[in-house]
């Protein structure tokens, strides 16, 4: 059986997300979940950077263009939050592109918009 990439860190991140979802439930804007999750990360001692600008690499060079991730946790996991009722293919593709462009190996897509918290780990 293969080792799970950043297992302990992922477990802690998802636990924080579950606490936020348990308290707020579905129906809020993404920005509400982002702010609440930041507060929960602080309580849970999850190191993070919020809305970090990540530069895009092309042909071994950094472009002037960048994207803002919702969070980068532990300096090695990109997190994207959604408030939609489900995880959509376009959201997965967006996160895959972020991973490719930054050479970060793990992304976690978290969807707060349904009755139960939904998330997907994407390894590049």
Description:
By secondary structure, the chain is of the alpha+beta class. Helices cover 37% and strands 31% of the residues. The strands form two sheets. It has a five-stranded mixed beta sheet, sandwiched between helices. The protein has a two-stranded antiparallel ribbon with strand order 2-3. Strand 5, helix 3 and strand 6 (106-111) form a beta-alpha-beta unit. Helix 1 crosses helix 2 (30-43). The radius of gyration is 14 Å and the shape is globular. It starts with 6 loop residues before the first helix and ends with a strand.
Summarize the structure.
The chain has 124 residues and is of the alpha+beta class. It has helices spanning 7-24, 30-43, 89-102; strands at residues 48-50, 53-58, 61-68, 71-73, 77-82, 106-111, 118-123.
* CATH C-level category: Alpha Beta
Number of domains: 1
Shape: globular
Low-confidence stretches: none
Average residue pLDDT: 93
Tell how many strands the DSSP assignment holds.
Answer: 7
Give the % helix: 25-40%
Share of residues in strands:
25-35%
Query: For the largest beta sheet, what order do the strands appear in spatially?
Result: 1-4-5-6-7
Q: In terms of structural class, how would the helical and strand content be classed?
A: alpha+beta
Query: For the terminal residues, how far apart are their CA atoms?
Result: 18 Å
Tell me about the largest β-sheet: 5 strands, mixed
């Amino acid at each position: 059986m293969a080792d799970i990439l950043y297992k302990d860190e992922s477990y802690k991140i998802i636990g924080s997300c579950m606490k936020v979802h348990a308290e707020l439930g579905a129906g809020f804007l993404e920005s509400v979940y982002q702010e609440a999750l930041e507060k929960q990360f602080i309580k849970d001692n999850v190191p993070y950077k919020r809305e970090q600008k990540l530069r895009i690499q092309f042909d071994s060079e950094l472009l002037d263009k960048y994207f803002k991730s919702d969070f980068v946790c532990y300096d090695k996991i990109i997190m994207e939050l959604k408030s939609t009722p489900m995880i959509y293919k376009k959201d997965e593709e967006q996160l895959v592109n972020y991973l490719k462009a930054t050479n970060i190996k793990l992304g976690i897509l978290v969807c707060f918009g349904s009755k139960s918290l939904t998330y997907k780990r994407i390894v590049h």
